[in-house]
Design goal:
The complex is a heterodimer of chains A (372) and B (57).
Chain A (H helix, E strand, L loop, with lengths): L2 H4 L5 H13 L6 H9 L5 H24 L5 H9 L1 H33 L6 H17 L1 H26 L17 H10 L6 H8 L9 H26 L2 H4 L5 H7 L11 H30 L8 H13 L5 H14 L1 H29 L1
Helix pairs in contact in A: 2-8, 2-11, 2-14, 4-9, 4-10, 4-11, 4-17, 5-6, 5-17, 6-7, 6-14, 6-15, 6-16, 7-14, 7-15, 8-11, 8-14, 10-17, 14-15
Chain B lengths: L1 H6 L1 H19 L3 H26 L1
Classes of the chains: A mainly alpha (372), B mainly alpha (57).
Chain lengths: 372, 57
Amino acid sequence: MSQEEAKSKVGAKELVAMLTLFTSVNVFLNYPQIVARSAMEAAWMEPIGSGILTIVLFLVVEWLLSKYFPGLDIVEVAKETFGSFAATLVAIIFGVYFVSMTASIMRQFMENVMTSVLPGTPISVIGLLFIVSIGYIAYHGLEGIARTAYFVLPILIIGILGICLLTMNWWEPSELFPFWGTGVSQIALGSLRYSSIFANVLLLTIIYPSAHDPKALRKVGVTSIALSALLLSGFCAAYGMVFPAVEAGNVLFPLYQLARMVYLGHFVQNLESVLIFMWVTAAVIKMAITLWAAAYLFNGGFRWPTFRPAIPVLGVSCFALSLVPSNVLEAEKWQEIYLLSWGWIIVFGLPLAIVVMGSILKTRKRGKLRHA
Amino acid sequence: MLKFSLAMLVPLGVLIYTVQFGRWMQKKRLILGAVSAYVLAAVSLLLSGAVLWQIFT
């Protein structure tokens, strides 16, 4: 498949589903635990703060891309603005970020599956199964991933809302007070610090040429960010009402622990065994997105004629990288420090800087041509 | 050691596949593409080898 063919056209609904799923999957990871530690009782506010910040940045980047670089992705923008060497460098930075993200999510889910349903299975076997399924979806390209996401998203939403509502009998609304938790400034700081889970801005700059209708991307971005922020915030609120703020920050697998709390009589209890399949499916799609993005970026940066041969080699690297931390606590610590706390520089800072500088240089060039 | 050797079959297979792809790009005179494919293949094999060695030995 050539580079041109790789830019398959994806519809708005599928893109909304893909971007929403990409961000919402964080409820299965340690995000609820991290925001609980950061804002305590006001943990549910941080996804909303991050969401608002992301929407603003998204609109700026989308406006600049559609005005100055229609039909180009971030690597092509970097190439047009700074030259081939910079484009390759940008592709490597973003590609490595996505590989690290895939590895980090994979490790957390491998541990989650091992702890909950397959305690006797070696971690390498679970990882191998993960990488085969992720690779298979990523191999089908953006169109395949987006269509799968469109199919899975309703199940994911029902699952998250279901868990929140089924634990209603454990809710203690007083656990959400004091209302501002650790304080307004701390919430604002936490919203900025952990905003990198909304990697939609970076993804937009990658999938921009693949949108069936680029004009609809603004609506796609805003809808997906708002929906993800609401899902994350709703889950954090339910989680905060079930577990006291101090304890919420120390629970290892928040959603799994919440699912274990479901007890609506003798026949409706211990639903985690049913829900784990849904979580794994959603996680596989998220990892397929990140793996595809890494392969697509390397493909663009190194001028490969197709992205597909990069999938096996990147998949194996992700698997190996996921096993580097000695335990799940170390893996979560690395994720919190390197991918979440500083991830915003790569997710927001770098794409914004490239697009803004590219736009300025292009405007100057146009001005010079007019005067000449 | 046997487990390690068996586990290394997958990274080795991927190495061969990626190197073949690199050679194909070299024939097409895509030098940057070929070099990056070789580097990626080597990094992937070394990383997998180190991690699997730690796990199985």
